[in-house]
Amino acid sequence: MRLSCLLPFLFTPLLFGQSHIEYSAAKKIWLLHTESSAYAVGVNPRGELENLYWGGPLWRQDDVPAATGGRELSSFDPPQSVINEEFEGWGGTRYLEPAVKITRADGGRDLVLHYASHTIQGDDLKIVLKDLKDDLFVTLNYHVYAAEGIIRKTALIENKTRQAISVESLQSGAWYMPHGEGYRLSYVTGRWAAESQLTREPIHTGTKILENRKGHTSHNFNPWFAVDEGSASEENGRVWFGALGWSGNWRIAVEQTPYAQVRVTGGLNTFDFAAPLKPGESLESPPFYGGFSAEGFGGMSRRMHRFELTDILPHGLEARLRPVLYNSWEATTFAVDEPGQRALAEKAAKLGVELFVMDDGWFGKRNNDHAGLGDWTVNPQKFPNGLEPLANYVKSLGMDFGLWVEPEMVNPDSDLYRAHPDWAMHSGDRPRSELRNQLVLNLARGDVREYIFGVLDKLATQYPIRYFKWDMNRPFAEPGWENVAEPKELWLQYVKNVYEIIDRLRAKHPNLEIESCSGGGGRIDLGILRRVEEVWTSDNTEAFDRLGIQYGFSQMNAPKIMSAWVTDVPNMNDRSTPLKYRFLVAMQGALGVGANLNKWTPADDKLATDMIAAYKRIRATVQEGNLYRLLSPQSGELTANQYVSQDGKQAVLFAFLHSQQYRQTPPPIRLAGLDAKAIYRVQVLGLLGTQQFSGAYLMQNGVSVRLAGDYDSTALILERL
Ligand code: DGJ
């Protein structure tokens, strides 16, 4: 009998439907399967865990060789440098990004992790590593989301020694690309009002760090990466990608070693990090999710969108479609009061709005951004009878009521700060740096956490609030913490407490929905997304700028969570785009209106009413369908995005012309994701007539769109017959 016939008997049987994880006791290999990828790790003869494969699906376990352990190439090139070690402790002859680094009570730092044991339960694999001498354990947890094509990694370090240790770095894991060179990295950078700018650059030997040290996820970088072989496009090419679920200081290191290994290590930022672990204590990393697409960046995005919808967002696929929202901020700024909000609510309801959100200005002495943050009681001049009359009126108009809060902050000019100056982050008696005239509360403290939970719980109990817009308008500064053994723990504990407050609130108020806002897109990641329904994409609501921001945002994040408002012009810059263009830009996500409706003309109202009605017809497709980015705003003067519903029955094309020269007619736009054999009825949004085309024609020849002049736009709705 051939050896390969014998080998299957040495493997744990692959029970699809029960487990997508195989184990070969003979080769000490684990093979993880998803619908679109496979991932393999194994134990080498020294007991180290080696990554053996990450890429497209495999079906034959026999193909994966056992881990060899490599060899010493020279005294300067130890074996640990040339193998793909799955989770490196900083110890022995290791010089790359460590996945975990500690200091013992006696100052010893050496940590060498060897395989100790493992368990497989359903789609969960736990591999326990142990220091070669001490009772320091690291458990690597892998979860396979087989249908979505995603693998989740977390790492847990446990101190079972009799001495305290300090953890100086804990990463969630490392992802290895196939051995080689010529890779390219994609990521987003940005700043306030200019988030999610997509960047692509070649990976060369060395280390590139994407990170955030500001306390929240940050506008500057977002915790995800994509790596391709240098030439992937929207729909073609192999792309490896990953995203962290952490809303505090995070770090992703992209390394190409001189041995042509390319790997991405990510987790808690090591900057100013320390987590003491007493005997018996443990620390868990945030999750790092990874996937593989053989269908380019578009395939990557669709996979991540589906994953967010099914496995990350609260209530998963049971969650309702996002309602059309109105937000008062750009209309009134801080000048909110009951008559003004009632007037806006009436107008919003007539347009078809379903959720009315009152933004900043309703509490304390909040007439501008100099005072009031921290005093979460209704301003009696603006709302003499409290919030009930407004909230009830909004409800009587058939809308849900939402309220803006910024619970993590305090203005020095507030009763809260006067009562508890020590609650604000500070470093001894050194000056406290204000930004937007506010300080950050030290939410790592238990008493502050309880206070904030109490405030929000009271609001949610007292008023019929369906939705909190939870804002956070500045990064940390002077992150001191008095009377604790390790002040650096603030970074970690702060985020844990934000999560805890939201989790408790949601448990107590099951109908409550939350929007994550941090001056726009400063807190968007897979950690906060487990707890919120929407995010505020950017404070920049200028429609043409938004096309670029939404393009970067959509790389990782689903349109359903991408809150997008139609606002007035000019806005942020001198550009004055037509109202229809602004609507069509915003209709590509969770549609909202943020304009001053008092200034709209009857024609504006009519257009808005029609657009909102049209949006309701297509929103399931937009919010939960498959996105095809046909033409990028980063190139050319035409942007086009297409959405196809999950059942394939509806598709929507949005097209935008930025500028037109020489009266040139845009070329036909070739559609994607349709059934070539099916016939589609095509209707231009806003027009009555329809035409019919086959999917083949629409995808091969394309569809002509009538666009003329700067900032013209159109949308086509396709129904499969
Ligand atoms: C920043 C947010 O991004 C805005 O939408 C608005 O809520 C303001 N804060 C209010 O201060």
Helix and strand content put the structural class at alpha+beta
Q: What is the overall number of helices? A: 13
Evaluate the radius of gyration.
27 Å
**CATH-defined architecture of the largest domain:** Distorted Sandwich
Task: Tell me the total number of β-strands.
Answer: 36
CATH superfamily of the largest domain: alpha-galactosidase from lactobacil brevis
Low-pLDDT runs of 5+ residues are 1-15
Distance between the termini: 56 Å
Q: What's the main sheet like?
A: 10 strands, antiparallel
Text of the CATH class of the largest domain: Mainly Beta
Mean pLDDT: 96
What form results from the Cα inertia axes?
Answer: globular
Proportion of strand residues: 25-35%
Integer count of domains: 3
